[in-house]
Specification:
The structure holds 3 protein chains of 3 kinds. By secondary structure, chain B is mainly alpha-helical. Chain B is built from 12 helices and 2 strands, in the order H-H-H-H-H-H-E-E-H-H-H-H-H-H. In chain B, about 80% of the residues lie in helices and about 5% in strands. In chain B, a hairpin with a 6-residue loop joins strand 1 and strand 2. The longest helix of chain B is centred in the last third of the chain and has 53 residues. Classes of the chains: A mainly alpha, B mainly alpha, C alpha/beta.
Chain lengths: ~450, ~325, ~270
């Protein structure tokens, strides 16, 4: 199958030449387009973040679609492609769309999701109808109007880029100025109201900023996919941090990055629409974040869970060894695998692996019959047993669970009890020495454990 | 004058176009009813976008444009969209509309990129993705029994949507009671032992099939309008599910007729005009309902006034009669 | 009917049920067994997990652990003999559906995909509506009903299911006096037929009067038993006296770290 009909370069080196030409900014226009798209990527992702936090992720989608008839109307009325007139036309119809989305669920039975879909598709259809009508008319410079459907960086004029730059800077500046207030409203709208913050004003401001960034991005990204530029960066950035200011900075970086990638592709293949490439590069950045983010990424979560499993397995074996020690009143201190398996059902293979880990950590050592706990191992084992039995006591006394019920829960909680929680337990329970099953609770003191070892 | 001109050159092609548009509108309206009731308008939006990728991939892999291939590709991608959105919502802990937005924009972007990469081989272009080309529907016909000396059977798109229309109709008739229950009250459906997950994906399959069969006619995005708008109009008026289905279909047919005549007058895109008419019908309905509501709320104070002053009026009468 | 026959399995037994919402533990290790032919109230403060317990029992929310048996068997086998009445807020009351159709939904479980309600199903639905004095409203759209009437439609639907066990989520919440009386009457009728009713209830003033049995929960089981036995000051204090913070924190920590899945063998 023959691919790349459109961009088919003469050779591979031609691509590199083009890339180099791009980065040397031999063409001044390239520099402007690049700066413009970076600014757009940044401002759209920052403002999109607030829409996301207000749980209105797809508002950008609807507003971008709503802008289309405005552009067409402006062109029909003024018969010019002056960026400012287009911009104002788009703003007007986007705002009508915004209020419709708000008005429909409040005044009719129509639900919010349907209101969004209705507004989006109706305005888009209206825009397309006008566009097809315009194309049938005999007006000058009507060609290229359809470029705002998918965006075409290469088709942007100096004026377009200048407007894009101004608007993006205004958006970034406004967000910076009102950051505290916007954050408060995004986080807790009701509370902001009780503080006397004029929520209505800031919501209108936010709407205005969203509409502005959507409208200004149409040339570059296009009506259809503008939603992703607002939404995907913040969704990706969220995996990296919990601090809103960090998230905002990161999402603007991601937005800028995708803008750079897509402008470059658009330069190499001028016939390619920019919007889809921007979305694809954003999606890749999103996927990378989802997988590799250091705190909340899937891989990190998987590894953490694996580590925890291993820790739990090790600690369970230590506890079993402690119990064996308790049972054997004779001086026998070393155990083999069969001893352990008689108390706890563990697969042999799994047990061997865990024992190896314990050896490595010097919690047990090999001995004549098999294994023996080291000093350090014994300390940890008695600590765990202590926590286990304290917890059993707590459940028994305060939650009134029967001794049969408490064991299973204590089996888990013992692994995550902290020292301060242990202290708290000790205080609430007074000085109990035995657990609900009648076993002795090991003491904290080091001197004590030597006794335990001897008996 | 206008109608004369309209009917003067009303030929076979117009009938095919109207018939195709009418089937598209009826199928989408019926499916849309369930999307609206189950508050899944956005997933419908998402699937209608993603389907583009399904069509392009199915074509690139099999090199065929036959109906089963297109349906297969679309259904796979459609279900994948629904499933991935749900998974991303659960695993990535994102709001569900955000995960829908991320998935469908990606699929649609990939679809558009593939369309522009293989522009020479696919008889799809960016425009057609958006509007569809219902005006060209009559020229792509299928033949029964060989291309050379077979019988011309009419447009391919017509038969495609015809088949899907029947599937949708039969599914709704057979599964009516189940669909009613899962739409009205999913929890009750679960407690009655109905497999809600199955029905969810079954509906998503119907959405995918309807969108792909409508694709030739109205494109990827205008389908959304036909899915949600007539069904929303019906939602405002209907008192039972059956009534809602009938009203939605009636609205969709009205939009087809109005849209077609508007397009004829303005020489604008037929599919866009149909969608716009659907929207105008919805807004007209809303305005009428609002006026009605206002009138009722004015009537009540009036009644209260009469009741309040009744005693006075009566008193007067008593007074007069006693005189 | 089958009173005091000890050989029969109880209508509902819950064993070691634990549930959570995100990472927050909602219920931990709840176990109880319900006797047949009684009305039972689930009582506890706001956020104690009453509705969650009901939903967990009906399999509407995934449970973390534990088992639920209906008449000694799993839910899938006994679905049709168990009827669930949700909270009114769960429903889109704008839904285009008529009262009779809602009640007929109760018959769906008995029908195959292609089957339509038969004359008998209609009779059952009619009787259910008449029992709750709602027959005159059968052709109304549900949005045109008052709160109490909506509740009665739901109860009629559960009745039409002809179940043996009824699980109701706050049936008395926000209803008028007439409906409240109708519900009490309904309970009496059901009990004389040997059926069991479990309700989430929030009104402590009426709980002793309306119900035979009480289950006190607050994130865990506090007490369960006949009303006259368990309705004590001590139990009320324990139920409404706040949660055990340490237990709560640690259980949440356990779910967050997925510790319960890290534990391979028990």
């Amino acid at each position: 199958m023959e691919a790349f009909n459109l961009i088919q370069p003469a050779s591979e080196s031609a691509i590199w030449d083009n890339l180099l030409a791009f980065w040397r900014f031999e063409d001044m226009n390239v520099l402007w387009v690049l700066i413009g798209s970076i600014l757009l990527g940044m401002s759209a992702s920052v403002i999109g973040a607030f829409a996301f936090l207000r749980k209105r992720s797809l508002i950008g989608d609807a507003l971008a679609h709503s802008a289309l008839p405005g552009v067409m109307m402006a062109f029909l009325l003024f018969q010019t492609r002056d960026p400012l007139i287009m911009f104002l036309g788009a703003m007007t119809s986007s705002f009508i769309g915004f209020f419709l989305i708000d008005w429909l669920p409040k005044n009719t039975k129509i639900k919010p999701d349907a209101a969004l879909a209705i507004t989006l598709s109706f305005f888009f259809a209206l825009g397309l109808m006008l566009l097809s009508y315009i194309q049938g008319l005999n007006i000058e410079n009507k060609s290229g109007l359809d470029k705002i459907l998918f965006g075409q960086a290469a088709a942007m004029t100096q004026d377009d880029i200048r407007l894009l730059g101004y608007v993006s800077v205004i958006i970034l500046f406004t967000v910076g100025l009102f950051f505290q207030k916007l954050r408060l409203i995004a986080f807790n709208r009701g509370y902001a109201q009780t503080l006397g913050v004029s929520v209505k004003f800031y919501e209108l401001l936010l709407a205005l900023l969203i509409v502005m960034s959507v409208v200004v991005g149409l040339q570059l990204v296009g009506v259809v996919l503008m939603a992703a530029v607002l939404l995907t960066p913040i969704a990706a950035a969220r995996f990296w941090s919990n601090e809103l200011s960090h998230i905002l900075i990161l999402s603007s970086v991601l937005g800028a990055l995708s803008a750079i990638i897509s402008t470059q592709i658009s330069y190499l293949a001028p016939a390619m629409p920019t919007g889809p490439w921007m979305v694809v590069s954003l999606s890749i950045l999103f996927l990378l974040s989802l997988l590799f983010a250091p705190k909340k990424g899937l891989i990190k979560r998987y590894l953490e869970h694996k580590l925890l499993r291993q820790k739990v397995a090790e600690e369970n074996i230590l506890r079993t060894l402690y119990k064996l020690l308790e049972r054997n009143q004779i001086d026998q201190k070393d155990f083999n695998q069969a001893d352990i398996q008689s108390l706890r059902s563990v697969a042999t293979e799994h047990l061997q692996k865990t024992l190896k880990h314990l050896c490595k950590k010097q919690l047990i050592e090999s001995s004549a019959r098999g294994f023996r706990m080291t000093e350090k191992g014994f300390e940890l084992a008695s600590l765990l047993t202590r926590r286990h039995r304290l917890w059993e006591n707590y459940l028994n006394e305060h939650a009134e669970l029967t001794p049969e019920q408490v064991h299973k829960q204590a089996e888990r909680i013992e692994h995550i009890l902290t020292e301060s929680q242990e202290q708290q337990l000790q205080e609430e329970l007074g000085n109990a020495n035995f657990d609900p099953h009648g076993n002795q609770i090991p003491n904290q003191l080091k001197t004590q454990h030597r006794d335990g070892g001897k008996t | 004058m206008l109608t004369q001109g309209f009917f003067a050159d009303f030929g076979m092609n117009d009938i095919w176009i109207l018939a195709t548009a009418s089937l598209v509108a009826a199928s989408t309206a019926m499916i849309g009813v369930f999307l609206i009731l189950r508050r899944q308008a956005l997933i419908g939006d998402a699937i209608s976008h993603s389907v583009l990728l399904g069509i392009v991939l199915a074509f690139l892999i099999t090199d065929s444009r036959s109906l089963p291939v297109m349906l297969g590709g679309a259904v796979i991608i459609g279900l994948l969209t629904a499933w991935l959105s749900d998974t991303l919502h659960r695993v990535g802990k994102l709001q569900s509309d955000a995960s829908i937005g991320i998935i469908f924009t990606l699929f649609f972007a990939l679809g558009v990129i593939l369309v522009s990469l293989y522009a020479g081989q696919i008889d799809l272009d960016q425009e057609c993705v958006l509007y569809g080309e219902i005006a060209f529907v009559p020229f792509d016909t299928i033949y029964l029994g060989g291309l050379e000396n077979g019988v011309e059977m009419g447009p391919r798109a017509f038969w495609g949507i015809g088949v899907v229309f029947l599937i949708v109709l039969v599914s709704i008739v057979v599964g009516f009671k189940r669909l009613e229950t899962i739409s009205f009250h999913p929890n009750l459906a679960v407690s009655l032992g109905i497999n809600v997950v199955f029905w969810h994906y079954f509906l998503m399959t119907l959405v995918s099939m309807t969108t792909v069969a409508s694709f030739d006619a109205v494109g990827a995005i205008l389908v959304v309008a036909l899915l949600v708008i007539p069904a929303s109009s019906a939602y405002l008026l209907a008192k039972s599910l059956k009534a809602m289905l009938f009203i939605a279909v009636a609205y969709s047919q009205a939009s087809v007729i109005i849209g077609y005549s508007v397009a004829y007058q303005l020489d604008s895109s037929i599919s866009a005009s149909i969608a716009v008419s659907a929207g105008i019908l919805l807004f007209a309905t809303i305005i009428l309902l609002q006026i009605n509501k206002k009138r009722q709320t004015y009537q009540i104070p009036c009644l209260i006034f009469i009741v309040k002053h009744q005693s006075y009026i009566l008193d007067q009468r008593v007074y007069h009669s006693s005189e | 009917m089958t009173k005091n026959s000890r050989s029969l399995p109880p209508p509902l037994s819950v064993e070691h049920l634990s549930m959570r919402y995100h990472h927050k533990p909602v219920l931990t290790d709840v176990s109880f067994t319900i006797p047949e032919g009684k009305s039972i109230a689930i009582v506890g403060p706001n956020g104690a997990g009453k509705s969650t317990l009901l939903k967990g029992i009906m399999g509407l929310i995934p449970t973390m652990e534990g088992e639920v048996h209906f008449f000694g068997e799993s839910l899938t086998k006994k679905r049709l003999s168990t009827a669930y009445v949700p909270q009114r807020e769960e429903i889109d009351w704008d839904f285009p559906i008529k009262v009779l159709d809602v009640v007929l939904m109760g018959r769906h479980g008995h029908l195959k995909l292609w089957q339509r309600p038969s004359a008998i199903d209609y009779q059952i639905a009619e009787q259910a509506l008449k029992d709750l004095q709602m027959w005159d409203f059968k052709d109304r759209q549900i949005s045109q009903l008052s709160g109490g009437q909506q509740q009665r439609v739901f109860l009629a639907r559960a009745l039409a299911q002809q179940a043996n066990l009824y699980l109701m989520d706050e049936p008395f919440a926000g209803v008028d006096v007439a409906t409240e009386k109708a519900i009490i009457e309904l309970f009496k009728n059901l009990k004389t037929q040997g059926k069991t009713i479990i309700c989430v209830h929030h009104d402590l003033n009426t709980v002793g009067e309306y119900f035979d049995w009480i289950i006190f929960i607050n994130a865990r089981l506090v007490a369960a038993g006949p009303a006259e036995e368990v309705l004590t000051k001590d139990n009320l204090n324990k139920t409404y006296g706040g949660r055990l913070s340490l237990l709560n924190d640690l259980t949440e920590e356990m779910y967050r770290t997925k510790l319960n899945q890290a534990h391979d063998t028990d």
